[in-house]
Design a protein that fits this description.
By secondary structure, the protein is α/β, with parallel strands linked by helices. Helices cover 17% and strands 28% of the residues. The protein is built from four helices and 39 strands.
Amino acid sequence: MEITAQQLAAMVHGTVEGDENVIINNYSKIEEATQGCLTFLANPKYTHHIYTTKASAVLVKNDFQPEHDIATTLIRVEDPYKTLADLLNFVNSQTTPTKRGVENPSFISEGVTIPEDTYVGAFAYIGHNVSIGKNVKIYPQAYIGDNVTLCDDVTIYPGVKIYHGCKIGNRCTIHAGSVIGSDGFGFAPKEDGTYEKISQIGIVILEDDVEIGANTTIDRATMGATVIHRGVKLDNLIQVAHNVEIGEDTVMAAQVGVAGSTKIGKHNMVGGQVGFAGHITIGDNNGIGAQSGIPNSIGSGLRVLGSPAINALDFARQNVYFKRLGQMSDDIRTLQKQIKALTENKE
């Protein structure tokens, strides 16, 4: 598909600066772009690439002011990143084939109603009393346990396992290999040093517009429900333990671990490899840096980093001091020797 910069700008309500007739037929990162590619500049760290990029056109913010001459065509928009996301979603909708029907071999329990617009891939298993909404896609080798509810427009990618009783809201997407509703980690120590398993009789609830990355696991509750609220986005390889609650529009990068019964509020942004202790409460609108350790409850509107996590600015300041520890140690030894020498001379 080919389009001119002017045509593209009209689609995204942008303005062209440069050759409005340049042809765009592909997308690329700014540092890797070649002729014919559209790219974008949203992160200031990549600004230097705009002066050397081979892209035919670059999406930039309306207020972007170049410091040097730019050879490529600029398309000025309100939010380059969101604009590119909208364009990629449009391209994906036009190029991804729509799957319908039931492939064989697959197993569908007796009495389960499969709407006409449903897709069930080969080797999928659908258990007893499963409820399936409109426009649901269940890809090959997925397992849908007994009494599971899949609401409208749900996409279940290959190899996903959804245990019995779990509820998946409208427009949810669960990527390959994820496990929803496996047992929470509950074991009671016994006097002889062994452990007795505590039955996990709760469920998992994913509310509307949740997306779960590949190989992420969300444990069912001991009692009640583990709840992932509306709009939450979880990356790959995340562990969510039993009875956890994650608030609306919170996003988590890969390898985050959330221990049991922790409550996380709304609109939090959580970096990769963050670890949350159990039975704590996290407020709203926090930014939690990668590899942070969160041992205790925190409030709202904070930016924290480190393990144990502290204010991000304090962490940066302490990190500067840490890098100087070697020299500071040498300086202290030198001062100690000087003091000792002065003391001996006085004696």
